[in-house]
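FORM 7B: Structural annotation worksheet

SECTION A. Query
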Amino acid sequence: MAFDIEMIKGVYGLMNERVNKARQIVGRPLTYSEKILYAHLFDGVATEAFKRGESYVDFAPDRVAMQDATAQMALLQFMQAGKTKTAVPSTVHCDHLIQAKVGAKTDLQDAIHKSSEVFNFLESVSNKYGIGFWEPGAGIIHQVVLENYAFPGGMMIGTDSHTPNAGGLGMVAIGVGGADAVDVMAGMAWELKMPKLIGVKLTGKLNGWASAKDVILEVAGILTVKGGTGAIVEYFGEGAENLSATGKGTICNMGAEIGATTSIFAYDDASERYLRATDRADIADLANHNREHLRSDEEVYANPEQYYDQLIEINLSELEPRLNGPFTPDLMTPVSKMKELASANDWPTTVEWGLIGSCTNSSYEDLSRAASIARQAVDKGLGTKSSFGINPGSEQVRYTAERDGILKPFNDLDAVIFTNACGPCIGQWDREGAEKEEKNTIVHSFNRNFKKRADGNPNTYAFVTSPEMVAAIAIAGRLDFNPLTDTLTNDKGEQVKLDPPTGFELPSKGFSYEDNGYQAPVEDGSNVIVDVKPDSERLQLLEGFKPWNGQNIMGAKLLIKAYGKCTTDHISMAGPWLRFRGHLDNISNNTLIGAVNEFNQETNKVKNQITGEYGTVPDTARAYKAAGVPSVVVGDQNYGEGSSREHAAMQPRHLGVVAVIVRSFARIHETNLKKQGMLGLTFANEADYDKVQEDDTFNFVDLTEFAPDRQLTLELVHADGSKDLIKLNHTYNAAQIEWFKAGSALNLIKAKEAQN
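SECTION B. Predicted structure
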């Protein structure tokens, strides 16, 4: 029996009417994504056709999911909203605060000991507000959601950028910041600009060493890290129907790395098999009754170029394994070209670690395919030349894989089985020797490979590939090993070749577990006390940000002009800083410490214009704030790429930053800035980025005329007294400008609730 089955019945009960009405209003056949979007309008049945990439639309998502690192701030905000219970089914998943070091049992107990205050807080808040709680060790949020909550035709938001994983089961699932989650949990409309649509037509069938991971690695190479911004990527074609549900989840999950709003596959036989295998036959039956609405209209499939803003075609039969990296997930290299490119670019070819897991690739199928390679190594007299680590995606996956003997080959190769958690993928990895910052290479099946991401070492060259390729490369110990053509020397001195991987889409005996780690909330949470100690280093109750005073912002100083790639990892690092995710003031001490200063090409060293001395970014920001001087951050292209963490917006806001001015934004980060009452602006002329000098003062001379579709004017005053007038663009609509005026979106929610 599925969770929240009555809610799901309600969604399907309205779908026919809403989809048919939307088709009539739009006046043409609809893609699958459009059907779901129009079926989830906050005001009900469609009355107008929305323009892709232009119209702001109010939606009513069916559910919310939060992981423990982001849930802290999301729920601290929700506690301020004045509600007694969440308006939609919501869950918290404890997967980010568990550090990988020794192995599952020891690491889990260590995390529970170190983070008990946070886990207890999340458990009590969940009980108070009717939120499902998945305890530490239960699994990675997106794998748990796919197994338990995702359903075809549904719409959900999650406080993690890889929420689109649920698109593998035909759900519009979108990563957001915590303030967006508060909107939905408070029963308010959730606003999104109507996405553009990118169609990816898949033909053929995967074979040999190719996997679903290689599909998204190829798409990342085509679209780059910002090519999907503002768009839903919709996969279709005979090739799509040849993929498993978890394989589709992998593809949708890593769509976050191309900046996509989300990615999605239509409901098909593989979806039905997965639903039934995960004890959700009731949803499969409902989906079958609505099958015509859980896919694009036939006219779309017949003439896709007429219905998508961009169309890509990939023949799965011709796909070979890819390795993307280093330092960016869109630098794509086919395995057959790696030897040449590694040599040309001086990439270290000795591989120190091979890591399998993360929310992208930790399913039963993933582990079974990688295990088939590990089993061959044992049978053919091979060991591993690299260290080897595994993170199962959930306790259900781990327990079933162990029952079926899938973990044994990994154990035979002395692999470390880590906790069912994110671990190294998000920097929660206590890697021995990382502090030496030696140049080295690792391969993993994760989604991101930014500098310092996995182990904090800026000289770790990380390459993203499939679990089966990770296993093969860990055995060979070399980045340029091509299992399609190369041989290895076994313990008898013989040359042996690895056969292509084999695996199981689903366990033949079904999934099983002893304790999946789920705790249902109490029926009545009114008597639950949520205790946050005033002297806690981990948790801090929030105080509202001050509203705008209605005057032009004058005399602001440059905090930092960030050079090149500046992701949310650079703005608010994870790793050891995760422990402060519930304490805004403490975590603000990592604000922008990873960003490179344009003027000296150093990190965490900026000029304090009050003293003329150089200091850290957080200290300099605090000095400006103490002096009553607002500050400004300037950035380059795709600023805020990466994780959905709203801390990257809340921290600068807390430290007195009033505006972030960049060449272009990543979608989630721009929204997060707006939600926190900041100015997220772009240079109308991107070349004006070059006019910003180290000692500049910023005057927003016409902010009192802030309005939708109206440029703002910035007076840039240089140290020699000269000035530049610069035009700035923005995407604020009238409602978002009210967020700015109120000081934050949360301030508006509180004000409205107080009036009720």
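SECTION C. Observations
The chain is about 30% helix and 15% strand. The first helix runs from residue 5 to 26.

SECTION D. Sign-off
Analyst initials: ____
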